[in-house]
Amino acid sequence: MIIDFRSDTVTQPTEKMLKAMISAPVGDDVLGDDPTTIELENYAAELFGMEAALFCPSGTMTNQIAIKVHTNSPGEVICGDLSHIYHYEGGGIGFNSGLSTRLLKGNNGRITADQVTANINPDDIHAPITQLVSLENTVNKGGGCYYDFEEIKKIKAICDQHHIPLHLDGARLFNALIETTETEKDYGKYFDSISICLSKGLGAPVGSLLLGKADFIKKSRRIRKILGGGMRQTGYIAAAGLFALKNNISGLKDDHQLATSIGEVLKGQSFVKSVAPIDTNIIIFEHTNNYKTEDLLEQLNQQGIKAVKMGHSKIRFVTHLNLPSKTLETTETALSMIK
Ligand SMILES: *Cc1c(COP(=O)(O)O)cnc(C)c1O
């Protein structure tokens, strides 16, 4: 049995999801008449209490479009030091939007309102104009930790004071929502734009959504076309996203419980130096010095455990809805075989 912990993106559509996909009514989304895509966008916009949404092929695209639409080069974007938009989007902030990036050292990637205040540039011809603040929740590279919503409110107040828009990379926002008392609508109220992924823990094969005001989404649609993200019979994949939003949010709690249990098992292994706090479905552990990360990953692979490297001497496991029912027991046995 293979236990694939590489990411929550490895999930495959279930029978029910596939059924929803093949029976979806479709049109041509570039021409604006794909009914299932329109339904998905409207459903998500309503869920977040935001005016409009845009279906895109990836979370990288939704983030990059948001950055582009909110800003005008030259300028600067403020984000946490572990941000996906900085580390994993190929330098797109510079390439697509011509901006510099101000990385703030966060608490596992989470930044504070005071830090934002201290890093908004003054009106001085030497300094790039601060044009956007972007938060990530949950923080992927931060071990899936989530923000205290009170801090988000404070950050929003600072942004408003300086007329700077606030974007959320909410690829795994639902993982935070299931652990806290806030709702989608609370987030919709405090962010100018939000990106969510349907293809992570929610289990859809493809797709992300960008949410925002109607005029922002209208501009975003134009940028999506420029980036080559205008697609035709998208209803087939939008149907999977709609199914995921309607059926797969509550199951994230199970992923979190499994992650916590696996974290406990990892703590007892001799090759594990430390396990980062587990808030949601991401487990990051540091291994002892007597291994090379690549060798340890290979040993895990031979025991049927697939995982990825996440920084120096660090390995990441992610739990998701496609893991077999005996995952905990199988993982425990496999880990005990590591030499
Ligand atoms: C996965 C992810 C994205 C989007 O990645 P794509 O592979 O482009 O869909 C964006 N932000 C975070 C934090 C992510 O984990």
Explain what the structure shows.
It is built from 14 helices and 13 strands. It is of the alpha/beta class and 339 residues long. It has 2 domains: 15-247, Type I PLP-dependent aspartate aminotransferase-like (Major domain) (Aspartate Aminotransferase, domain 2, 3-Layer(aba) Sandwich), CATH 3.40.640; 251-336, Alpha-Beta Complex (Aspartate Aminotransferase, domain 1), CATH 3.90.1150. The strands form 3 sheets. It has a 7-stranded mixed sheet, with helices on both faces. The longest helix is centred in the C-terminal third of the chain and has 16 residues, at 252-267. The radius of gyration is 20 Å and the shape is globular. The model has no long low-confidence stretch (mean pLDDT 97).
**C-alpha geometry:** globular
From the helix content, strand content and strand pairing, which structural class follows? alpha/beta
The mean pLDDT is 97
**Biggest sheet features:** 7 strands, mixed
H and E order: EHHEHEHHEHEHEHHEEHHHEEHEEEH
Overall number of domains: 2
- Percent in strands: 15-25%
Number of strands: 13
**Residue runs with pLDDT of under 50 for 5 or more positions:** none
The CATH architecture of the largest domain would be 3-Layer(aba) Sandwich
Annotated CATH homologous superfamily of the largest domain: Type I PLP-dependent aspartate aminotransferase-like (Major domain)
CATH topology of the largest domain: Aspartate Aminotransferase, domain 2
The first-to-last residue Cα distance is: 20 Å
Radius of gyration: 20 Å
Hetero compounds: pyridoxal-5'-phosphate
Number of helices: 14
- With strands numbered from the N-terminus, the spatial order across the biggest sheet is 2-8-7-6-5-3-4
Tell me the name of the CATH class of the largest domain.
Answer: Alpha Beta
Task: Classify the helix fraction into a percent range.
Answer: 40-55%
